[in-house]
Every structure is written in structure tokens, then in C-alpha cells.
Description:
Substrate binds at residues 12, 45, 63, 73-74, 150, 183, 201-202, 211-212. The chain is built from 4 helices and 17 strands.
Amino acid sequence: MRRFHKMHGLGNDFVVLDARAQPLAMTAERARLLADRHRGIGCDQLILLEPVEGATARMRIFNPDGGEVEACGNATRCVATLLGDGATIETRGGRLEARLTGDGATISMGAPRFDWDAIPLAYPLDTAALPVAWEGLAPVRPPMAVNMGNPHIVFFVPDCDAVDLGAVGPAIETDPLFPARINVNIATITARDAIRLRVWERGAGATLACGTGACATAVAAIRAGLCDPVLSVTLPGGTLRLAWHAGGPVQMTGPARYVFGGEIDLEALAP
Length: 271
Ligand SMILES: N[C@@H](CCC[C@H](N)C(=O)O)C(=O)O
């Protein structure tokens, strides 16, 4: 039997397994089953904590399709509350620093990257204004690509709630322009310091919130001169505070909730 923690950040929910003291072999199949809302515990991302030299923990992140990915902003805040104030968290996307706040954490999410091969794109294009279009989306400016540890594309539209995310999301996520697939952010700027956002997550679909998506969207808006360097991003699950100055790391602040803990027999999981 393995102990697990069920947590969420703005409704983006996680199963967290702590393998720092007791190793645990994770496979894509096991991650898929744990994340399955009918056959497992159910979550948007499975999080595995492992020991690592020079940081409080290594955080491994699995999407519900079983794919292991580089970054997850909302899960980082949740994990920070388990590890304690001042934790350093190593991810595939970089080493992150956490400070606890009243109801969650502030995470220094690292510096965004913009080079076409860092996104990654399949071939060189201007990531600040991608010369591409997809049916069902009429953005007010060409989309931007931003790597926040993981890959994001950001569209600014007049009303993000009017977009059929379930149609455009998977088409863009799997476009051959993105060899690692991509997280799709559809945003509406409502003030110099406020953005509304809906996200189609790579490997997960539409979620109530995406922390790295909020970071990428804030960066895109600030870089384009559309927003100030400190702003709020409101997703269906709630609001995050973001701060970014060009060349520096993105600071993300928001809540983290512990829902329940339990034990599960990993060997008994089956399709
Ligand atoms: N929910 C996350 C992002 C999780 C990973 C993403 N789906 C990907 O494949 O890169 C967040 O809060 O950032």
C-alpha cells in the first residue's frame, strides 16, 4: 500500500506520491490508471516526489495521458506546502524556489524562453508573432509562443469565453508545428493588470486552471506592451497573481489546498 495526497490549486487537481523515503517505479500505464477518474483516484496531473542532491525534492509530473512533462505551476504550489517554507523543487523544466503565503505559495518559476527551438517549434519562426492561423480562432494579434519549462502558445481574443476550446484546443495541441505538442492559452485582456484565461492543456484537455499557462500568458501580455509587469490572471477555477520583468524569473502567487489523504494498492490498479 502507498500513501497518497489529493490536492488542488484553483481546481487543477493532483495525486501526490512521496517516494523520497521509499522508491516507487512509475510507468506511463500506472500514471494513466492513477489519474483515471473511473479506474483510479483521478487527477489532472500525477506528481511523484523523489530525493535529489542539492534541492528539497525532485518533482516529476505526469499528464493523465501518461506522458511525463517538465513543469506544473499549480502542483508546485501544492508540493511547496507539503515541503515547507523555502523549499527548492527540481523539475525537468528547472529548479524552482518556493515561499509559503497565507493560503498557498509564491513560486519563482524561472525565466521564460522565446527561442523557436526552445519552445520547441518544428522550424524557425518569430515566436513573438507566429504567422499561423487556425479555424475557429480570430485573435486580435498573432499568437506568441513561450516556454515556461513547458511549451505554451498564447492567443489574445476579444472574448475567451466565446471560443470553442474543445474544438480548437486539440487541433492546435497536436499541430505538426509543435514537435513536443503544446499547451493552448486563450486569453482576454480586461485591464492593464487583469487577464481572463482558459487553457487547453497538453495531455490533459481543458482544466480549471493552469499555473504555467497563467505565467506564459502574463509574459506574452507584458512582452507585447499590453499589460503592466504585475497583474492578475483569472481562470475558471480562480485567480493567480503574476509578476515579471524582462530577463528575470516569473513570480506566481496563489492558493494550494489539501483535499484528503489515503492509501492505495498500486499493484491492484487495472484497466
Ligand atoms: N496544470 C499545469 C501544467 C501541467 C503540464 C501541462 N499539461 C504540460 O503538458 O506541459 C500547471 O498548473 O502549470
